[in-house]
Amino acid sequence: TTYYFWVRAACSPTDNSIWVGGSTFTTTQIPATLPYSQNFTTANDFGFTNGTQTNKWFYGSAAGNTGNSIYISNNGGTSNDYTITTGSTVQAYRDFTIPAGTTAASPAILSFDWRSQGESCCDYFRVWLVPTTFVPVAGTQITTGTGRIQIGGNMNLQNSWQSYVNTNVNLSSFAGTTMRLVFEWKNDGSIGTQPPAAID
Fold first, then answer.
1. Which of 2, 52, 74, 134 could be cross-linked to 130 through a Cys-Cys bond (beta carbons 3.0 to 4.6 Å apart)?
2. Whole-structure pTM value
């Protein structure tokens, strides 16, 4: 949840200063525990970092795959389409508590259904594991860095639903902490092919 606040001086009942906006702050999600499953049938517990980007994450039924999913849309979630001529970078994320004692010898399984056509070089989604101290920013791509791990490569060039399964996700660097799973959509402002990313 993002909070905004304003302040003003009240010198007397009839003498007040103008309202001045303070900075904003965002609270973290209540972390999910493992094992975790989300089929998006009745609810969505992913947060979206969309900002003022043209192409944004939404939750709904526009992408199909037997019900609801999260997906990129350029029209308020009505369809799973994107504006190819306007670059966007947006993130969908979920926080998880990783049990203390988690080691590389006990890998996690990450699986999801996805589709994303895009453009071979420049329109795709990525999957990241990051610490919750790292807050994704709309308009800015995540890069590798301390505690930031990309899972797989750039995912695109699939206009029908695919299943992704990774049986060897190493969570040991997050043992005893809370980590954030991030799906990041990025498109440049040139060519591309519908549809953009959808996750189920």
1. 134
2. 0.88
